[in-house]
Amino acid sequence: MRIVIIGATSAIAYHIAREFAGVEHASYFLVGRNAERLDTIAADLRAHGSPQCVTHAGDFRDSAMASAFPAQAVAALGGALDLILIAHGSLSDEARASTDLAYADSEIDNNYSSAVRFASAAANQLREQKSGQLAVVTSVAGERGRASNAFYGATKAALIAFCSGLRARLARDGVQLTELRPGVIATPMTAHLPRGLLTCSVEQAGRLCARAIRRRKDLAYIPGFWRWIMFVIRALPEFVFKKLSF
Amino acid sequence: MRTGRITDHPSWNHLPESAEPIAQPVDWRDSIPRTLAERGERNVLAYGNGRTYGDVCLNPDNLILPTRGLNRVLAYDRERGVITAEAGLTFRELLALIMKDGWFPPVTPGTSHLTLGGAIANDVHGKDHPTAGTFGRHISELELHRSDRPAPMRCSARENADLFAATIGGLGLTGLIGAATFPLQRIPGPMIETRTRRGDCIAMFAEPADPAFPHRVAWLDASAPGDESGRGLFSEGRFIAGKGRTEMGRSFSTPWLPSRLLGPRLLGALSRLFYLKPFRGSESVGFEPFFYPLDRIDDWGRAYGRAGFYQHQSLIPAAAGPEPVRALLRTRREYQQSSFVTVLKDYGDLTSPGLLSFPQAGLSLAMDVPNLGERTLRLLDALDEIVVAAGGRINPAKDARMSPATFRAGFPRLAEFSHLVDPAFSSGFWRRMHAA
Questions:
Q1: Positive or negative: CA dihedral B393, B399, B405, B406
Q2: Angstrom distance (rounded) from CA B127 to CA B346
Q3: From the CA of A171, how many Å to the nearest CA of chain B?
Q4: Among A13, B99, B223, B279, which is least packed by CB within 10 angstroms?
């Protein structure tokens, strides 16, 4: 099995990768920002059973990298790609984004525009192969913009819409798009938030994501109970919702 | 600065803690120098998985650095059985990787939930101390991040040997352990053959050990009358060939029980029932119930309620004979306090490089006591007196209240150790030992 991961040092992506290293003994093409951290992840995946890990460091906002990665991955891994996982992103600092518009721009580029560039390049590769699977990590934050994360939520909302459209287009070529929509996962990205009953460990999130990918799901909430929480949150009338402080 | 809440980072015995530490998780080794540089006026302490029983893992009013994100395996030689891993990896994660290849850690303590860093910093031991020694004894190299050095240091018996010796059993005070290398032991299969006997376990430890059964431990019945104080179940175990589960089972969570529910009477009755229950003299069991019997119950410490509990683990050196162990059990009885988990082990004379390593040849008695306030503290002080008089020591990893004098009496190499403490590191325990 040949897997490409965009944002390979993300805690969720790493835990998904570990599942496939141990069971399927997958080979990896790992793309991330920090070369040293990518090497650490690669060493760990080899220890867990992967025969081959190739790393590629770069800036996600660089559009040349997005268009070049599929060919590089095919060359490095020596064959058609089975899974491309797009998992990079950052939880934007809402207060800073609302005053520092350059920062807001770069967050939107990182969380939305670059994800779309990578997903498009990935889709083209998989359509050409007429096989494989694309998995994209979005967030429950994309289902309704909240006062505390309007910027982050909006980028994820746009990405969810894009995934929906791309899924339908890819289906004609036998390519599956699986959207992974996590709730609150205990990762470095959310380390500053209080941990509550709803918080899921990153190990558990990795297992659930791997299961959704193996089952070739269209959409999986991580964990599944978020489907019902978000159903309620979406149903709240605005006059109630705008008074909530979360 | 990211902040965490105390409830996220408790100690295992849930003793009430007033001051809140601030948590700055460490997820990548390359970020450690920056984290140490940005500590400001506060001192720091690594926090693994919170399985120590007192304040060696706490740092009130200061910074703790949770290390669970450092859980990557950096190298694993399946053929020769050698592993290098980051310090936040738990034994549970390690076992999930190595057991299916027929390997086991060189030494394992009684829980799989601790991290490698915690196992080194507290120089943990298992039921096979006479033949295997401590975990720290098997570490061939470790990576140490210090606030006074720009780059991580490689420490081993040959390189930076003084810091290597101070870090093993060094309670996290010599810097932050980033990664460690150690050999694994080959096992014939994941099942354990056990032999169990009922009777005076203190006397049984005095009998010559059967070398075929390296793992030996005794559970003592806290309800035993004074003249039968050492009675309990003595069990021995060894790995045997054959198939069995290599994955660990699911665990169950414990609700908070009322603080005084598990009082002396109920604990005594439970102990007696456990002592008298029928058992098989010989059977084969999975490695998990043998090594990690309490890991099936998440957060079992909650059974003692929100008042928490104390654990008292002492070492009585071989030279003092078994009499002080009997005196400890008698004293607990005189103070009318009970314990369900009363465990006796013997240690051999394999030494650890660690300057503050707890085990040395002799008998070690560990018991949990529910926190009943002042009278529990008086009991624990009385127990300490017996230990000090016998030339023994108290395990800091299990302690929340010993006096600085008891600590100094137990660890003669303390002065040597103190010179190697990182100036930016401290802990609740360390400050308590230096309180005027």
A1: negative
A2: 8
A3: 36
A4: B279
* Token pair for B403: 């006096």
To 5 degrees, how large is the angle CA B40–CA B171–CA B396? 125
Q: Which chain A residue has the Cα nearest residue B4?
A: A192
Instruction: Please determine, for residue B6, whether its predicted confidence score (pLDDT) is greater than 60.
Output: no
Across the A/B interface, how many CB contacts are shorter than 8 Å? 44
Q: Report the distance separating Cα A170 and Cα B170, nearest Å.
A: 57
pLDDT tens digits, one per residue of A102-161: 999 999 999 999 999 999 999 999 999 999 999 999 999 999 988 888 999 999 999 999
This complex has an ipTM of 0.87
Q: What top-level class would CATH report for the domain A2-241?
A: alpha beta
Domain count, chain B: 1
What tokens does A34 get?
């920090």
What is the structure's pLDDT at A10? 94
**Residues of A contacting chain B (CB within 8 angstroms):** 9, 11, 22, 34, 36-37, 40-41, 43-44, 46-48, 188, 191-192, 194-195
Domains of chain A: which residue ranges? 2-241
What is the per-residue pLDDT across B234-262, written as a single tens digit (0 to 9) for each? Answer: 999 999 998 988 888 877 777 788 877 77
Q: Give the H/E segment covering residue A71.
A: helix A63-77
Q: Which residues of B touch A13 (CB under 8 A)?
A: none
Helix A101-108 with A150-171: angle, nearest 10 deg: 20
* Cβ-contact B346, B363 below 8 angstroms: yes
Contact A60, A33 (CB under 8 A): yes
| List of chain A residues whose C-beta atoms are within 8 Å of the C-beta of residue B95 | none
**Domain, as residue range, for B244:** 191-410
Phi, psi dihedral angles at B304 (to 5 degrees)? -85, 0
**Inter-chain CB proximity B72 and A43 less than 8 Å:** yes
| Predicted confidence band of residue B159 (pLDDT cuts 50, 70, 90) | very high
Q: A133-137 and A83-86 as β-strands: parallel, antiparallel, unpaired?
A: parallel
Could you say which of B3, B69, B86 has the minimum Cβ distance to residue A192?
A: B3
Strand, coil or helix: A2: strand
Q: What is the pLDDT, as a whole number, of residue B47?
A: 94
Judged by CB atoms closer than 8 Å, whether chains meet at A41 and B72 is answered as yes
pLDDT at B5: 37
CATH number of the domain at B224, please.
3.30.70.2520
Model confidence at A222, in pLDDT bands (50, 70, 90)? very high
Q: Is B31 exposed, middle or buried (0-12, 13-18, 19+ CB in 10 A)?
A: middle
Best mutation target, A40, A48, A55, A189, to test chain B (most B CBs within 10 A): A40
